[in-house]
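Suppose you are handed only these lines of text.
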Amino acid sequence: MRSSIDSSKRCGDCTLCCKVMEIEQLAKPAHAWCPHCRPRQGCTIYQDRHAECRDFSCLWLVNDRLDADWQPSKAKFVLTMSEDGIEVRCDPGYPDAWRRAPYQAEIREWAISGEQHDVTVIVITGRRVILITPERDFDLGELGPDDRIVRELEGTRVVDARVVKVNPPIEP
Ligand code: SF4
Ligand code: SF4
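From them, the structure of the protein bound to iron/sulfur cluster can be written out as follows.
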């Protein structure tokens, strides 16, 4: 969505965020190509794109520690930050791309480091969410907009994870 942040990183032929991200201003769901995108070429309304698109930068673009292997067009996933932590947003055509080297080991390292600082690491493919922890992965299935992840902690260690409804249906 952005052409560049600094002189060293450029989107180049990557357009993956225009597929995996939800764009509210366009009513574009996550994991579907934006109708304005020419995959691998760019945005056909680049000069007039919405603020949501202008303001977005994936982590690869802004983090100098992520080298060329992590460019979304190569990795097949887009890294983003939420208020909870790191999100690995997979191209649905490559749901297991994050498991390949060097990605999975590094993502595990983020979970190890994150556990000390209450930073979560999740992998998202479509609506399916996997919580990554230092010791195991919790495949939480498909989450809806009212679903939230609840972690059970022993100290800082995650020992279990489940999904709860934020607005549970009212019992008749
Ligand atoms: S995913 Fe990142 S590198 Fe790719 S087009 Fe979007 S902002 Fe640029
Ligand atoms: S409007 Fe352009 S920048 Fe925004 S999602 Fe669509 S193709 Fe990407």
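What can we learn from it? Residues 1, 18, 23, 34, 36-37, 43, 45, 49, 53 surround iron/sulfur cluster (ligand 2) (CB under 6 Å). The chain is about 15% helix and 30% strand.
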